[in-house]
Amino acid sequence: MSSLSEFDAAFARCPLIAILRGVTPGEVVAVGEVLFDAGFRVIEVPLNSPEPLESIERLAKAFAGRAVIGAGTVLRATEVTAVRNAGGTMIVSPNTNVGVIAATKSSGLVSLPGFATPSEAFAALEAGATALKLFPAEGASPAVLKAIRAVLPAGARVLPVGGITPGDMQRWLDAGAAGFGIGSALYSPSVALDEIARRARTFVAVWPLTRHASGSSLASTTTTTDSGGKQALTGPVVVNNDEPRN
After folding, report:
1. Is 6 or 218 the better-scoring residue by pLDDT?
2. Is residue 230 annotated as part of the catalytic site, yes or no?
3. Model pTM greater than 0.90?
């Protein structure tokens, strides 16, 4: 299965990206396990964290075939190669850098660049972005997203990132958000594992409720068949926390 197919299947299962800014290699797998148990299927380690490539490598090995692992705060094309070599398959940036997007696409990885204006959004899509990160969401609003969504291609996925809490999600979904990146409201280095688990369960529990309340077209579920004959989910489904663990 390609990186894009794996991302689409994970995003369909739970379109919430856990952002582990500041995580260390020694704790990252334990944090990943509580997030996975809660229902998260996409995990990002920002490159301004301590030894980020080591953390990405450990997560990629621990969650191979179970979750999508990638890097955030990717600012240069050369960093894309380093992330790929560590086993990461997703590249997230705070900005729209067409060089980074092009390098990501040519490497066969998933590209989620940041944008703040329609011009940046269209430039990112033209360069090959998989989805768009509205960042910082605190500096925008659901009304801004709704206005931008009116001119974007219908299938373009937009994820608000920055300051998202469970109570905010409904307003953003009503405006056209496809998912969210969640940072300090979920994880920070000083938070205990049981508290991270509680926060993660809260976000995952709120997601299907807000999705259905918004009448989102993303509520449908479809399947595709990859080259190996395996079916992959391409629409949101109920999170199954009884999946096998390594």
Report:
1. 6
2. no
3. no
